Amino acid sequence: MKHSYLLFFVLLIFNCSPDPKTFIEYIDGYWEIDQVILHNGIKKDYNYNDTIDYFEISDSLIGFRKKLKPNFVGTFETSKDVENIKVIFENDSLNLYYSTPFSQWKETILFVTNEQLKIINQNKDVYLYKRYQPLNLE
Fold it and tell me: Nearest CA to 96 among 7, 20, 18, 1?
């Protein structure tokens, strides 16, 4: 009897995991790193970011990520560098395949809402992002 309750509980947890296809609608926009948890458990908090990440994904699941540097007048400075993204759903996960002229790599989105984004890379480092909010100097 105990085993049947345990089995029911495990099945309930796995069936309640979010559908990664619903993540797409939240990815676009400006994100800043809040914390990184390295694969060895060391945590690094980011109280200030001089750059932010801008993600844009089209309906065809192709997009890009750019590093932007906010300035005090409310605009951004950027370079011409861009990381191309191809979104692929694999094994109940949402994977971002990046490519630049110099490298290719994969990251997996673990969780995303309108305000939070959690990504794990191939090194098992977890990046916790928060939605970028411009500084209000008034």
Answer: 20
What is the number of other CB atoms lying within 10 angstroms of the CB of residue 120? 17
Of 27, 54, 47, 37, which is closest to residue 111 (Cα–Cα)? 27
Alpha-carbon dihedral angle through residues 24, 19, 114, 37, given to the nearest 10 degrees:
-100
pLDDT digits (tens, 9 = 90+) for 20-70: 677 889 999 999 999 999 999 999 999 888 899 999 999 999 999 999 998
Q: How many CB atoms sit inside 10 A of residue 41's CB?
A: 6
Cβ neighbours of residue 33 closer than 8 Å, sequence gap 6 or more: 46, 49, 53, 127, 128, 129
The DSSP letter of residue 7 is H
Q: Rounded to two decimals, what is the model's pTM?
A: 0.81
Domains of the chain are: 26-131 (2.40.128.280)
DSSP state of 6: H
Record the tokens describing residue 111, joined without a space: 């969780």
Residue type, 2: K
